[in-house]
Write the structure tokens for this entry.
Amino acid sequence: MTEKVEKKSNGTYPSVRGWGGVRNVVQRIERSQTIVANREAVAYSLLTMANTKITDIMEWDDQGNIQVKASSKIPEHALQAIKSIKVNERHDKDGGCVRTLDIELYDKVGVLRILAKASGLLDTAEESDKPSVIGINVKAPEVIDVEEIQQDNQ
């Protein structure tokens, strides 16, 4: 059961006294309202991260020469998928400088997992038909009268 918490017209929240950690509850309510208000933007960002291909950021030829595209040529959706960029400089024994570029993208499988879970894609029809409470049969212990046993033995 989900309760909808709405802000009152005067800008205050309903009382959350007795919930323990009132400040924490109010912060969670504010965060969830922010996400709900921006859910389309959140969904768009996740979808763009999931749909970004490495060829949106770099290209290579038949000889294996890799060329990173200029930042102005990388589509906006691909820029959102970049987690970090690191430039490493190394000097060789001849005194020349060799630069390498490390580009790390967000975990595509993790993003797809979040999208699948949020959309209900992973919910199977079999699980949705199952009852949430399983019936439990309680059997009382068998009562044995000690006097009857003594009389039967005599």
Observations:
- The radius of gyration is 31 Å.
- Residues 1-5 have pLDDT under 50 and may be disordered.
